[in-house]
Design brief:
Rossmann-like_a/b/a_fold, UspA domain-containing protein, Rossmann fold, Universal_stress_UspA, 28% strand, UspA, alpha/beta
Length: 145
């Protein structure tokens, strides 16, 4: 079984997080283990909030961090809680960097049903699967993203 699991979180698809946590619990089994999570905020990378004041950006970041921590505490059992981090950057790069630092035995990433656009653009899940230095499990959503 696995002892250290990393789950990238996506607030646009937060219904996938409990599914990923349930899989993590199965993979950890009766062993002692930790479930870690990382949420990657892409807004500053893509200049998504260029028209907001600095205070508004700080407030939005604070609200987002609270939402991420609340979701983590709601679904990850206390005895399995590792670290829950909020980072800024490109999703797949940041998740892979976090995994290189943390050295999880497995990453559990959510992915939507592939549509035509995913053949052209690729997805964060695909890039994580291809470049991670550990096993990666993909939890599928029934909806196309």
């Amino acid at each position: 079984m696995y002892n250290t699991v990393l789950i990238p979180m996506d607030l646009e698809h937060e219904d996938m997080f409990p599914k990923a946590v349930a899989l993590a619990q199965q993979l950890i089994g009766d062993e002692k283990g930790e479930i870690h999570a990382v949420y990657v905020d892409q807004n500053l990378v893509h200049h998504g909030n260029f028209s907001l004041s600095e205070d508004a950006v700080k407030q939005a970041l604070g609200d987002m961090k609270q939402q991420v921590k609340k979701l983590f505490k709601k679904y990850v059992p206390e005895h399995l809680r590792g670290k829950c981090r909020v980072k800024s950057g490109v999703v797949y790069d940041t998740v892979l960097e976090e995994a290189d630092k943390m050295k999880p035995e497995v990453i559990i990433v959510a992915a939507g049903r592939p549509g035509f656009s995913s053949y052209l653009l690729g997805s964060n899940a695909e890039k994580i699967v291809r470049h991670a230095n550990c096993s990666v499990f993909v939890v599928r959503d029934e909806k196309k993203w």
